[in-house]
Amino acid sequence: MSSRTALSMALALCLVGGLLWQRTAGFSAFTYETWRQSQVVRQRPPVSDWRLQDDQGKVVRLSDWGEQVLLVSFIFTRCTSVCGALGVRYRQLQRAMEATGSKRVRLLSVSIDPAHDTPERLAEYRSRFGGARTSWTIARPADEQTLSTLISETGLRVIPDRTGGFAHSDSLHWIRDGRLVRISAWTDPALEGLLTDAG
């Protein structure tokens, strides 16, 4: 092998290595979800003041909750898999908040299927889990532009499936002061602690 060929190969390997380093957040994120989580920690991207309609038909915005930390999940009421688990988890978190008297966090479930998920269907989703409105809001984007915006701003992947539903992330999105500051697994056992120390 000539020295010129060896140099070309070394440069190509460096280029590939650099691209992998960049695309995997320093070789620490090998799935889209872990990459998204690491990007959020690094960049804390801003989110706009989403216009939502809750399960009572009332229009609400992220800014309505002031300085509270919003713990946002994305669901749809026809979901037969993880959305039910998210509902159970949110009820558990709500009970933990009630036990500690925590007011720093607001739970927010947002439908990614607003055409189907009317306020009545969202109310049915709430009643399935016995969730109280005191600290848990269930809503849908008030218009298509809001749906498009929140998907773009969170990096959420929403993929229609063959049964009229969607494949989507089951992660929880922490929003504070108009910024997405953390994405965590809904199964993270540290969540109860985060309710009183939402750092």
From TrEMBL:
Signal peptide boundaries: none
GO molecular function: metal ion binding
Database matches in CDD domains: SCO
UniProt cross-references to InterPro entries, sorted A to Z: SCO1/SenC, Thioredoxin-like_sf
Keyword annotations: Copper, Disulfide bond, Metal-binding
Gene3D superfamilies, alphabetized: Glutaredoxin
Disulfide feature: 79-83
Binding site for Cu cation: 79, 83
The family this protein is said to belong to: Belongs to the SCO1/2 family.
Protein name: SCO family protein
Organism: Thiorhodococcus minor
